[in-house]
């Protein structure tokens, strides 16, 4: 796996695909700069060696050139975080970009305008990728969030750099962390999959069954399994057309020697509301008019035991409707168990939009081994897919 360490960037122009797709408020100020901060180590390392940096990114989903999606809005924040004034080219290709790229000197940073102002970016257009490629000497991909897309700047561009391409530090860390779970994992390995639907996690579940010893299935998915097993789930969320699939998963898990753990009790509510009346009930005996919105105390006690005995832990998806404080307990507690297991030496990887949000919200970011930055990309890796952005560097 080629990384920054395989190159000398002195007097070289590094063309880096970053993910600066950050949220902006109504005044176009950056409200969460995590992604810019995450790209800093790669940029710093290249500048320190005496190289220059040309940054490519997308922002939002513009349809053609749309001022509100201009990357100029993030210049101030990026300059502050990187500690150097970031120069800007108001187009990512063409004369302005070419001139700006030709003129940057060692230690300088140039940001190109939103790649997606050109439809050729998402189309993976070869001529467009070639134009981008002409701007730099070495191509660095540090954008995990878009590594599952075969776009011009994430994948197609790599063919114009022969050997002169590598992973940035962030992307390398993502791959390494996922491999610690999927390939070189220390046993016992436990995957915790929560969230709302079986249908969105099914491919992950199927692929992961070959890699884990324990699988905790929680959140809204619980009830499709419980109903399929003959339980009464009241008004809980359920995908009736996935019941057979649920049984199939349980059978497959048994064949593969994977222990599946499903909540035995839940916090049930008489409405999908934080103000609803609640009671703890057996997961198989939820009365009509009530729905399970969080894992109950007995389930958590059991999950704690499984997590504490694990050496490798993967967590994707909340155990309950954690956005409502009255149903956040299961997710918070699970986060605490994982933090404790990590402190005891386990490797823990948290990924997928909602669990990352939960980990941040409950202040557990620094207590797990790694928090993945790419939701969709991480899920695709967990599904066993080869991501085009990663393959393009390895080729
Ligand atoms: P996903 O995007 O599939 O990971 O699902 C995340 C969502 O699942 C969160 O917004 C949770 O509120 C929701 N969720 C978790 N548990 C439940 C539940 N028991 N009933 C309904 N929604 C749930």
Key structural traits:
single chain, alpha/beta, Rossmann fold, 2 domains, six-stranded parallel β-sheet, 14 helices, about 35% helix, about 15% strand, binds adenosine monophosphate, Phosphoglycerate_kinase_sf
Q: Which structural class do the helices and strands define?
A: alpha/beta
For the record, the CATH architecture of the largest domain stands as: 3-Layer(aba) Sandwich
* Rg measurement, Å: 23 Å
Biggest beta-sheet profile? 6 strands, parallel
Major β-sheet strand ordering: 3-4-2-1-5-6
- Distance N to C terminus: 10 Å
Overall domain count: 2
**What is the averaged pLDDT score?**
96
According to CATH, what is the topology of the largest domain?
A: Rossmann fold
Fraction of helical residues: 25-40%
Strand content: 15-25%
Description of the structure:
With about 400 residues, this protein is of the alpha/beta class. The protein folds into two domains: about 5-170, Rossmann fold (3-Layer(aba) Sandwich); about 185-380, Phosphoglycerate kinase, N-terminal domain (Rossmann fold, 3-Layer(aba) Sandwich), CATH 3.40.50. Helix content is about 35%, strand content about 15%. It has 14 helices and 17 strands. The chain has helices at about 35-50, 75-80, 95-105, 120-125, 125-135, 170-180, 200-210, 220-230, 245-255, 295-310, 330-345, 355-360, 375-380, 390-395, and strands spanning about 15, 50-55, 85-90, 110, 140, 165, 190-195, 215, 230-235, 260, 265-270, 280, 285, 290-295, 310-315, 345-350, 370. A six-stranded parallel β-sheet has the order 3-4-2-1-5-6, sandwiched between helices. The longest helix has 15 residues, at about 35-50. Adenosine monophosphate (AMP) binds near residues 293, 320 and 323.
